[in-house]
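In pairs, describe these two lines:
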Amino acid sequence: MNTNYDSYLTTATQLQRWRDFQAHLLAYVVVNAAFVLAWLLGGNGFFWPAFPLVGCAVGLSFQHFHVALRGQITDGDVRKKLRAVRP
């Protein structure tokens, strides 16, 4: 077992998860800003962008939980999964 390589893979995986989250966060902001802009330009009536704002926020919060609160994927996690997959 190469501890440096395991540490490298764990860190690389966590960095990729954070980058994915940041990309989804940017998409959330851009898309929902467009909805709010459309609402503003459309005469302001009922604030319908609340529905996609809340709906997308729920999905984004689940992804944040997955990235930040569940912790890093460890070498032990990978080995356990490999043992379960192999016959």
Notes: The helical segments are 3-41, 50-69, 75-85. The two ends are 22 Å apart (CA to CA). The chain has a mean pLDDT of 85. Residues 3-85 form one domain.
